[in-house]
Amino acid sequence: xxxxxxxxxxxxxxxxxxxxxxxxxxxxxxxxxxxxxxxxxxxxxxxxxxxxxxxxxxxxxxxxxxxxxxxxxxxxxxxxxxxxxxxxxxxxxxxxxxxxxxxxxxxxxxxxxxxxxxxxxxxxxxxxxxxxxxxxxxxxxxxxxxxxxxxxxxxxxxxxxxxxxxxxxxxxxxxxxxxxxxxxxxxxxxxxxxxxxxxxxxxxxxxxxxxxxxxxxxxxxxxxxxxxxxxxxxxxxxxxxxxxxxxxxxxxxxxxxxxxxxxxxxxxxxxxxxxxxxxxxxxxxxxxxxxxxxxxxxxxxxxxxxxxxxxxxxxxxxxxxxxxxxxxxxxxxxxxxxxxxxxxxxxxxxxxxxxxxxxxxxxxxxxxxxxxxxxxxxxxxxxxxxxxxxxxxxxxxxxxxxxxxxxxxxxxxxxxxxxxxxxxxxxxxxxxxxxxxxxxxxxxxxxxxxxxxxxxxxxxxxxxxxxxxxxxxxxxxxxxxxxxxxxxxxxxxxxxxxxxxxxxxxxxxxxxxxxxxxxxxxxxxxxxxxxxxxxxxxxxxxxxxxxxxxxxxxxxxxxxxxxxxxxxxxxxxxxxxxxxxxxxxxxxxxxxxxxxxxxxxxxxxxxxxxxxxxxxxxxxxxx
Amino acid sequence: xxxxxxxxxxxxxxxxxxxxxxxxxxxxxxxxxxxxxxxxxxxxxxxxxxxxxxxxxxxxxxxxxxxxxxxxxxxxxxxxxxxxxxxxxxxxxxxxxxxxxxxxxxxxxxxxxxxxxxxxxxxxxxxxxxxxxxxxxxxxxxxxxxxxxxxxxxxxxxxxxxxxxxxxxxxxxxxxxxxxxxxxxxx
Lengths: 623, 187
What we know:
A: 623 residues; alpha+beta; 5-stranded antiparallel beta sheet; 31 strands; 20% helix; B: mainly alpha; Rna Polymerase Sigma Factor, Chain: A; 2 domains
């Protein structure tokens, strides 16, 4: 968008939204200024706990980043846990406060998982890698070291949009949610996608008897296929549907689906809340178990009669679980506490934990830590599948770990650094066996290899309205035994009236040296996808730019000629490749991509040769 | 609106000079930092905030802003941009602002061009619908960055997110906005 247009719009910013942002900004500034003075008097004992916990976190930050063995880390964590217990016990005695009790409850519920009878070191290949993205890979992969794709022998399970299922409720204030996904299946042989429901004459329209789309449950995680069943995390809506206005029961459950569509069962309750929250969940199948992370956030609004919304407060927490299908047992591994009102929002994860199953471990990334968090610190962690214990693998300061990948004994991660430009990052290699960290390469080198005009100075330069002249992002980050693969996008705003986006993909050797780079080829959306969009949304005649409604053709009045005209005139700026969302998985041979509505696959060689990916199936009817 | 802000407006309406002192105490820092981001100069920023206080003093009454602080920082921003233009020192890499003044609203001017006013109303309504459809966090980040001119660094710290995540949020919102405006036939 041109800056002039942006400025024109910004000039029309509704004051309630300006006020909302100012309020948030001021609240943070006040919080910061209150926290800054050393030894500042806290008004009550509960806040004193926070101060001590923050102090404890600060000590942790100062420790050497990577020179500890896993055992040392565990010992250190044990000492810290004891310290925390002492602090919390003192707090409970002193205040009897809710906050301390909640934190203690969270601590107490960290359990050890007994899986010794289930798995041994020899039973499974040590280099088996599972990663979570979307339709899931499982231990059922034939190839070792295969990141795999959520597939069975004959097709893929995935979340399929069901238009009839859009639902909206309001409870206890300003809040609504919508969910319109059912469980879908793509059959490779026939190329057809169907809902996983075998009920005769079912319309798959959200009716309560439909296995795939029942409105009784809203799927909030991608499906995972394991041992003949498909699993997904869902919100149980049954009480909500009975009592939309006064419902106080909002459970999240683990659903198990028969792949033939005959049955859907809630096999475990993950949590039970009296308040409706924004919920998300990630799940991975690894070593015969499901590893689940639920994350909830709530925006608490205070309404003002004159202005509408005037205040909001964020709250959140997360929990990790292991589910064993054989005894159908759910174990909570860690939890940051009950969803009660806290002082500040706690985002343990940005975009979820990014699970990756490697060997006997499930790795995850935690971007932030908090005093409520039983898994202290931030960086890359792993859960031992045999014991359920969590340990920190690499300590990366809060918010600085952009992405990571695991290959053998190496954890590669991208770390933001303040010593370089704002756009600067380092690719680091942590050797799990030796505990050593190598800084492989400054990402500036990677960019410079392809764009010689890119300099550190340029990256720092600011241009319009605080927008940096150059913006750089890293998105997908993969590895195999020989190479690292990094997808990145650079926004060039040096010309204020126009901006260029470049989506690139670089192959590096295991020492971080860039080997080859390809600029991803922009691909327009498939015609049938555009057609489906037009049919759903209608369209404005392309000759009109004033937005007047008489030129809008609603879906029900569209003729075939209108649709074809709309498809033909579809604005060409929409492309398949979008680095943020495209690259999902790498299986050692092919990259899997998700474009708007479709899933694609392309081999490594074809990618670097600039060829187009192969379209596999239409993932969603409408995004 | 906060009860305190209503008190402030009452002070302005009763022509009580304490109004300026109270406003300075409550919002001086906010206005100063916004002016500072635009002007990149402490002295200019201070003068700009003082000018803003004077403008508010002259504007209320008769003006009765729904949101006092939104009104105040809009005035501050406009004055800072005017000052920046007068200084004729806009250069890349200097201050954060490099915008066309004609694109910014004059909060006191009545729109005498009916067609323009109607168009602006339509745009504003569309913009409101778009913003209402964003998550609160993304909306706040968007407004803080583009309107309040907070840097990515500041936002990352404030929202406890990585800088990359902030950038990603901004880029996604921009893309959504562009798609929305195209869909509405406004772009």
